[in-house]
Design a protein that fits this description.
The complex is a heterodimer. By secondary structure, chain A is mostly beta strands. Chain A has one domain: Immunoglobulins (Immunoglobulin-like, Sandwich). Helices cover about 0% and strands about 50% of the residues of chain A. Chain A contains no helices and 11 strands. In chain A, strands 2, 4, 5, 6, 9, 10 and 11 form a 7-stranded mixed beta sheet that branches. A 4-stranded antiparallel beta sheet of chain A has the order 1-3-8-7, with no helix packed on it. Chain A is globular, with a radius of gyration of 13 Å. By secondary structure, chain B is mainly beta. Chain B has one domain: Immunoglobulin-like. In chain B, the strands form 3 sheets. In chain B, strands 2, 5, 6, 10, 12 and 13 form a 6-stranded mixed beta sheet that branches. Chain B has a 4-stranded antiparallel beta sheet with strand order 3-9-8-7, with no helix packed on it. In chain B, strands 1-4 form a two-stranded antiparallel ribbon. In chain B, a hairpin with a 5-residue loop joins β7 and β8. Classes of the chains: A mainly beta, B mainly beta.
Chain lengths: ~110, ~120
């Protein structure tokens, strides 16, 4: 059973560009949450998707948006990239409100 | 608002020695409490969790944690550390009213293990 998978593993972008990160949840899971982990910090909650809708959102600007597909996979989009968006982006999946399982993350570097 | 404090940024212990990582939380009621471990370049792995009941919780890899309501603490312990335990450890809290999302994490404690 594959766990949570994320792609790509690493990504380099320049300021002002847009980026899309992808997440496939663990089999049987229907809820996906995204977290941003800056260097030397703990993960911070961005938003959560359930039934293809954003259910909860953390303190992140509208430049951060997402989507959930009928197969429960999810995308995180970030527009107008800033240097401060450089971070490890973690996806976590769960079956509704049960335990979250984290993926390995996507390392985004903004130059 | 919830918050988590991990007072120790970096801890070094000798292999075979005991370990205690501190975690204090701020929350209006009893939260859900978690400890995660993150190896370099990896995602987060759940070590243990506390929802209710027995305040001493057993986890994987020989770790345990004790919930102390009076001290708003959830410290992680291991009686004998192995070199493979070197990693970053994160304490997190979740709101029972919304399941375990969103999780609020501390800034982490980096554990180094020396021979």
């Amino acid at each position: 059973d594959a766990g949570v998978t994320q792609s790509p593993t690493h990504l380099i972008k320049t300021r002002g560009q847009q980026v899309t990160l992808r997440c496939s949840p663990k089999s049987g899971h229907d809820t996906v949450s995204w977290y941003q982990q800056a260097l030397g910090q703990g993960p911070q909650f961005i938003f959560q998707y359930y039934e293809e809708e954003e259910r909860q959102r953390g303190n992140f600007p509208d430049r951060f948006s997402g989507h959930q597909f009928p197969n429960y996979s999810s995308e995180l989009n970030v527009n107008a990239l800033l240097l401060g968006d450089s971070a490890l982006y973690l996806c976590a999946s769960s079956f509704q409100a049960d335990e979250q399982f984290f993926g390995p993350g996507t390392r985004l570097t903004v130059l | 608002a919830q918050s988590v404090t991990q007072p120790d940024i970096h801890i070094t212990v000798s292999e075979g020695a005991s370990l205690e990582l501190r975690c204090n939380y701020s929350y209006g009621a009893t939260p859900y409490l978690f400890w995660y471990v993150q190896s370099p370049g990896q995602g987060l792995q759940l070590l243990l969790k506390y929802f209710s009941g027995d305040t001493l919780v057993q986890g994987i890899k020989g770790f345990e944690a004790e919930f102390k309501r009076s001290q708003s603490s959830f410290n992680l312990r291991k009686p004998s550390v192995h070199w493979s335990d070197a990693a970053e450890y994160f304490c997190a809290v979740g709101r029972p009213s919304s399941g375990n999302t969103p999780l609020v994490f501390g800034k982490g404690t980096r554990l180094s293990v020396i021979a």
